[in-house]
Each structure stands twice: as structure tokens, then as C-alpha cells.
Design brief:
This protein has 126 residues and is an alpha+beta fold. It has a single domain, classed as RutC-like (60s Ribosomal Protein L30, Chain: A), CATH 3.30.1330. The chain is 23% helix and 31% strand. It is built from 2 helices and 6 strands; from the N terminus they run E-E-E-H-E-H-E-E. It has helices at residues 46-63, 84-94, and strands at 6-10, 19-24, 27-32, 71-78, 101-106, 117-124. The chain has a 6-stranded mixed β-sheet. Helix 1 (46-63) runs parallel beside helix 2 (84-94). The protein starts with 5 loop residues before the first strand and ends with a strand. The relative contact order is 0.24. The model has no long low-confidence stretch (mean pLDDT 89).
């Protein structure tokens, strides 16, 4: 893209077709999936997938000069909306009051079979 007022930080996965973080002015946008620190995909239960997803978000935001306490909005995609309480338990370890604005959406499936959670976040630049 030729927009000089918009910045994109590449996803660490060289084969990804999505940026890790996009920024405009003071606003950052990131979408994360349950990726372990070594870059591999975590396909365990909802708790471990939620931990990996939110940790990946934390790392991406910090790399872009922000942090979890600067998150304004999250959209949480769950393949089983009944797992929302389990996601929320992990969520409370990464966020505190005042809580970000958020929405949890039940979806039929995500990009990879076995993936149970994905999040999209908007955050203020640090």
C-alpha cells in the first residue's frame, strides 16, 4: 500500500498473508491466533489456546509500541460459544478494569481445523 500515514508490521510467519499489526495515527489493530512463542500453532483445549492467543497479542502490541492496558476493543471469535467462560478466565489474567470494550462471537469454524479462538484488537499506541 502507498498510504504513508498507515504503517504495517509484518507477521513473523514469512508465509502469512496478514500483517501482525497495522497502525494509523495513534490507533493499532492486530489479529491473533493461538500461536506459541516458537511460532507453531497450539491446538489444545480452549484454555491453552486462549493463553497462547492473548500472549501473542501482548507480544505483537509491545513490538508495535503499545501494551495490553492500551487495548480499547476486542472481538473474540469462538468456535464453541459455550467455551466463553473458560476464555474469560484467561482474559482476566491479561486485562483488568477498566475493561476493554469487547464482543464475543460464535463462529462455525476458523482458518485451521482445531483452532478454537481468534481475537482482533484495537489499541492506542503507547
Amino acid at each position: 500500500m502507498a498510504n504513508q500515514d498507515i504503517t504495517f508490521l509484518a507477521d513473523p510467519d514469512a508465509e502469512s498473508i496478514s500483517s501482525d499489526v497495522a497502525g494509523f495515527g495513534g490507533l493499532l489493530v492486530s489479529t491473533q491466533i493461538p500461536t506459541r512463542a516458537d511460532g507453531s500453532l497450539e491446538l489444545g483445549d480452549i484454555t491453552v489456546q486462549s493463553e497462547c492467543t492473548l500472549q501473542a497479542l501482548k507480544v505483537a502490541l509491545e513490538r508495535a509500541g503499545s501494551s495490553m492496558d492500551r487495548v480499547l476493543h476486542l472481538t473474540i471469535y469462538l468456535t464453541d460459544i459455550a467455551e466463553r467462560p473458560a476464555f474469560n478466565e484467561v482474559y482476566k489474567r491479561f486485562f483488568a478494569k477498566p475493561w476493554p470494550v469487547r464482543a464475543a462471537v460464535g463462529v462455525a469454524s476458523l482458518a485451521v481445523e482445531g483452532m478454537r479462538v481468534e481475537v482482533t484488537a484495537m489499541a492506542a499506541r503507547g
